[in-house]
Amino acid sequence: MSLDPGSLNEDSFLTVAEVAELLKLNQQTVRNWIDQGSLPALRVGRRVRIRSSDLNRLLEEGYTAGSRRSSQDDQPSAEDFWGGESVGLAQTPANGDRNG
Predict the structure, then answer these.
(1) Does pTM surpass 0.85?
(2) Residue 55 near residue 8, CB atoms below 8 Å
(3) Tens-digit pLDDT string for the chain (100 aa)
(4) Spatial CB neighbours of 1, under 8 Å, sequence gap ≥ 6
């Protein structure tokens, strides 16, 4: 089954397998999202259905969160920590004793 994310109707419902295939994920990952409350789902008996609009919202939040993380340039980097200075090389003891 081939799904096109652009063709999803806001009122349509998807199965766990369809969401997993669409996002190239394992079905258990989608079930975990549902169990954690990250992805709302409708349970019909033992079946689970995901509203397309809920999936789209989750994806939009993911893109927003990802762009927020990348825009946090005020976080220290490794270069800030080390100051760009060389810490030198490890040296062996002069007498050749490796045990110190």
Answers:
(1) no
(2) yes
(3) 455 555 556 679 999 999 999 999 999 999 999 999 999 999 999 999 999 999 999 998 887 665 554 445 566 565 555 555 666 666 777 766 666 5
(4) 18, 21
Place of tokens 């992805």: 39
Residue labelled with tokens 């045990």? 99
